[in-house]
Fold this protein.
Amino acid sequence: MNEDFILETEDLTKEFAGFVAVNGVNLRVARGSIHALIGPNGAGKTTCFNLLTKFLRPTRGRIIYRGRDITAVPPAAVARLGVGRSFQISAIFPHLTVLENVRIALQRNRGGSFDFWRSKNVLDAFNERALALITDVGLASYAHHTAVELPYGRKRALEIATTLALDPEILLLDEPMAGMGHEDIDRISALIKSVAANRTVLMVEHNLSVVANLSHRITVLTRGRVLAEGNYQTVSADPSVREAYLGVGHA
């Protein structure tokens, strides 16, 4: 395996009772890049993510992370190897503060149980790191607000902060811009760009302008197969992509 690629799949396939959701996908994600997975609804993007993070078991094919075959590795172990995932549906604790949410994620990363009786020094160390992460994602002024009080876009920023607390080497973002207005999209786009400065990002995203502005490489899926791959200029000019993704037919 090429060590320039942090994450690769070979013939990745998932069938559900005869329906092929992901069909022979060969994906190669370059280390240090922002790689987007796009396609129409039902293309297999989220199923692909669920296979990569081991929430689903592939029918056949292999997943290679940092040159190691992780196809049979369980989800928690994959997360410990450095694969972090943020979900479409928020995975934060709504009635804890922003600071408490990030601190819990940091405690999880230490591998211990939630020892709330830890010494004050240990908790202060978590607080310091948590506040730094919160500042990084633009939430410093919200540190003591409960998560449920946050505007939608800020909730997504918090979710990214809790994922970053696990210190992943590759960050998988499942539709990070879903349901956002322009201001939030701009803010989260800037956040993703800064996050990608020292790690790899693989994201499923519907918003094509976001994909155009952020991605180094794009893989287009349709009906579970790879339709096209390349930079935005290449895939957006491909007639088969325009037909499948944009609904532009041939004259």
Q: What stands out?
A: The CA atoms of residues 107 and 202 lie 25 Å apart. Residues 90-167 form one domain. The chain has two domains: 1-82+170-251, 90-167.
